[in-house]
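If your schedule permits, I should be very grateful for your opinion on a structural question. I have a record of one protein: its chain in single-letter code and its fold written as discrete structure tokens. Would you kindly read the sequence against the tokens and tell me how you understand this chain to fold? Thank you for your consideration; the sequence and its tokens are set out here.


***
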Amino acid sequence: MARGGRGRRLGLALGLLLALVLAPRVLRAKPTVRKERVVRPDSELGERPPEDNQSFQYDHEAFLGKEDSKTFDQLTPDESKERLGKIVDRIDNDGDGFVTTEELKTWIKRVQKRYIFDNVAKVWKDYDRDKDDKISWEEYKQATYGYYLEFHDSSDHHTFKKMLPRDERRFKAADLNGDLTATREEFTAFLHPEEFEHMKEIVVLETLEDIDKNGDGFVDQDEYIADMFSHEENGPEPDWVLSEREQFNEFRDLNKDGKLDKDEIRHWILPQDYDHAQAEARHLVYESDKNKDEKLTKEEILENWNMFVGSQATNYGEDLTKNHDEL
């Protein structure tokens, strides 16, 4: 059973991972890949049950992916607590010894932004071949598709041929001045379109194209479910799939015509009334606030350290393994 569409965050939970492999005279890379769909909070955070080890694991994998969640294993519990304590001191902006929901929210937004721009910096040199601090469409196309354009017998040729015009469409949408050359800001919009208002239509369109298997321009209930679950031997659907079918009927299909159009997809994956950083901050406070004063002491956070390691407050666990002067 696959549960591939239930990541908590669009683009950050997931970001863009580009695999770069050197081939003779040509740099090979993967094109932009489909993001996780936004999953909306199923209930108010105050109604959530206490976390247990199993749900911690779900949180870690939802935020990190299975491989990145293993980053935490590099540290002992004592080392993790010590380094987390240093992060707490930085989150406490007014130095009053408490971490409020607002301070957590501010920190999470800062970490999100840094993650995105660090991600762009890591891949920038692989595409900026002439080192002019800009990336042209031709540079990106050759770096990503050059090998497959040259060797037409590649087993992946059909897939990459399909992805090429999709990437070109997204690149042009990010290229605000239309010169087919991306500045760092424009390339960031290309790699992380969900973070930019002028790229939202591309996010919606790509989501529709990914899920709409029969090509009718809509997403029906079966296509919606197939994006997150695949049957094995035609066995019974688990309860969560039945719940998702109810969600589709009651909350996704706004006009009750049995399918999702672009507006309904936009409402689903880019909800206007949902602040992810605020929701995450509220969740962390609720789960760690032992005395229910709606703010956290360092002791309360460290007592629940295992949850924060898997939270965006610690940049997917990575902040626990790096020099904190960078923060």
Summary: Residues 1-36, 39-54, 58-69 have pLDDT under 50 and may be disordered. Strands lie at 20-23, 26-29, 99-100, 135-136, 181-182, 219-220, 259-260, 295-296. The two ends are 39 Å apart (CA to CA). The CA atoms of residues 121 and 184 lie 9 Å apart.
